[in-house]
Amino acid sequence: MHVELRANTLWRTSIDVRDGHIVRCVTTCNRGASARVLAAGRWGFYARSGETDPHTLIERAQEISASLPFQGAVLAESPCHHVDKPSQAVYPPHTTEIEEKIREIRTLVESSGIDENPLINHYYLGFNDYYSMDLFENSEGSHIQTEEAATGIIFALMGDYVREGFLIAPYGLEFLSEERVIRKLQEKMNTFPKKVGSPSPGKYTIVFAPEITGILIHEVVGHGLEADKVLRGESVLADHLGEEITSNDCTCIDDPLLENAFGQYSYDDEGVKAEGTPVIKKGVLTSLLHSRETAGALSCNPTANALSESVLCPPLVRTSNIQVLPGNQSTEELCEGADIVVDSLGAAELQYEQDVLSLVAESGNHLVEGYSVRNVNMRINVNEILSHLEGVGKERELVTRHCSKGRQFIPSSSLTPFLKFSEVEVLS
Q: Does the pLDDT value for residue 161 go beyond 80?
């Protein structure tokens, strides 16, 4: 019988600012634990909030396992680890006074110049941080204790248009004083163009900024290579392992260790050590993303991609952080021969039944007609888009978000450059 125990203590702070006024401030602390048992090819999982006896968790997980039909689950081998990893936060969120957090938020507002900007009528800033202490143990002898922190800001700036943004990093309050946070706010306060138009429906060659290429690669490559989908026959991309599927300028890595990434981790939720998995090398599809169970089913090595929203949820196979290595073209070179450049994403939705990713380009420029574009609807076939990659830029940007699968939300980041694609369908 294989047994996994997980326990967690989580501190959170949430502060809302509207037009310079603190309107909400909440701090919480929660505890939880779970047991997962694999016996006779059947998983049993049991979780509880609050203080819980581990023996009780294991007993209940065993009972659940025994009550389920045979699943045929087999785990790939993985070394055991003995680790005690502290947080890298200079100002750990759970020990930083709330007054200091409020002071830093006010300093950020002042430094960015929101209050004095004539284009902004109203604004909202949401500050959130957390500090997590996690313990993982299994019957193979692993004992992994980690501490993680994250601090982030979400904002909405309202004037003639609404501009939104989200930034977060895996450490403490020092994040708010970073230049990139102030720069991101100021970018969203730039003067809006007066000459705005909409391209006619059709197919275009488009250069996408990292804000869009990050989510595109995350959805197409990351989710497309999760091995549980392969076992269910839901991944067309995986049928081309070992084949050239895109430009040889493209190398893509699923990278849990990505520096400064929201979603960074050293060990996954099965205790497998994270090292990063090259999934595309110079255009060739090279690997799937695995849990120990999918690796066992497909006779592969686990890739540390078993992740869960919390200890109260069983881990699923999940893409982590995605990075595309920089190419050799400047943004100006990429734009040569392109029809449109898109610099900001409004919304995105993946329609799994139709293998279509729907995007709304918040802003950009029609390079041929010479006007700015706003809220342009685009539709991308996820099974074909990589074959239309025509250029990879030098400049990359780290973009953060949350990712949903199986009703579980986990942190995720992408580090991608500007990418140029042909045959992109514009709807309106």
A: no
